[in-house]
Amino acid sequence: MVRVRAGKAVFEGMGGGIMDGTPEGPTDESPLDNVNEFDGIVGLPLEPDEGRPPGSSYDSQVYVSLSGDAESATWAIGLEDDLRVLALAFAAGGTALAQEITAGLLPESSGRSRSLDQPEEVDVALHGLMLDSRDEEKLRDLIRMLVAERIAGEGRRP
Amino acid sequence: MTACVTITNLSSRGEYSALDPRRTTGFLPGYSRRFGYNLAADGIVVVLKRNPQLSGCEMRVNLTTTLAEPKDILAWNFFTADLVDRIGSPGLGLPSSMTIRRSSSMGLSCGQGTDTIVLRRRSQAFNNWQAWYLFSPADFWDFWGGFNVTLDWFSDTNRGLWADQIPAPSYPLVSLPDSTLMRDAMGNFSLVFGGTDFAVPPTFVSLIPSVWGLSPSLAIPSTPLPSSPVDFTLVRELFKSQEYVIFGGARFQIPDAATRSSLGFSSSQVRLLPPGGAAKLNKYPFDGTLLQEQQKLRVYMAEKGKLRLVSKAALEGRCISSRNVRVVPDKTLASLSKGPNLGPP
Q: B 217-246 residues with CB below 8 A of A?
């Protein structure tokens, strides 16, 4: 798992490690106690002396989003999952592992962003991956190549 | 062709499910729903009300709270990792409502629009804003797009579980399971299927054990239930040959076993209603129900007792998710009145 970097004020506390407990204070009678008033309830209230079960952690999940015109394109089917695997591999083993798992799928990296070579506009945003700028650019390069290969593969299809 | 790729980290513990109003039953009209959220340290009631003025790409978010500690809700864009809009507690000088648009919809570019909302608290101890919760982005828009979403943040001293300690919702969400037998104070029995109750005629009470395999002595006290079965409920009335699948509270006849199978159902899913039970099933679906016949690509939206054909451009332009389109047997939509076509917003 990749650790969250609380890089923005908005995410202070979402992974930064300050939200383990709850604020001190009395536990009032909750409207949620009357389950019949709801069409669905998420979660359960804990008793005052009840500890939380194990299972929650500060680890975050890698979230990949693909949007824009490409969202509904045939070549984009499953791309989010592939990109997630790529990002996880990159986080675990850097460029070497990312290239290893995509060996044979992608052309050799040009060592620079390939966005200018492509007629499609592929905008990539990376947040909270704790990569230095050089690695970040490598990951961007791999992502763009993966997308370009998907598009090219679509064109080769009979 | 533009592709906006975002890779970011989300807190597993703070990302709660947006419940699907179409896979639950409710007392409120149509798909309006009232959900409770026992969050890790807060309690929130979410009321959904379909807004026909909004497409699925839009949502009206309202915040109500009387809590002393300031709260705000951010409309958040993952691509820019920044807020798009913000509402907050009274006294903060912020509005209490905002209309948000789904990211990359309606011609918005990569950094525009909202992916989800982030719920924050103003910490007195640390004197800063702390983000605690968000809703799973895809579900948030697929399920709540086109609704007025009112969050009543009533408690910040609640003690609940973190999102990663809660199992994913298991649909359908109903208050009582199928084949629950109820008995009211007058001695009348009813059976629960699809989250709603069907009266058992007095002459059939003696047959309850043999027909439904239930013991009248184990009936629970009657409790009020929603008036319509939840989506994907399959029913057949005793002594009748017509089998129905329920979508949007309405019945759609399944003509034969092959059709049932092709819809992805099996005979074991068909619930046997007491005589007269089918009369409780609506002919017209709730407003906003999306329907498609098996062999046709046309998608219709129910609106005021009529079906409106959704144009291909409108499917995308209105952010209509295929997850919400219900497939019904061929010809079942022929008898329903048709309204004007539905174009892009």
A: 223, 226
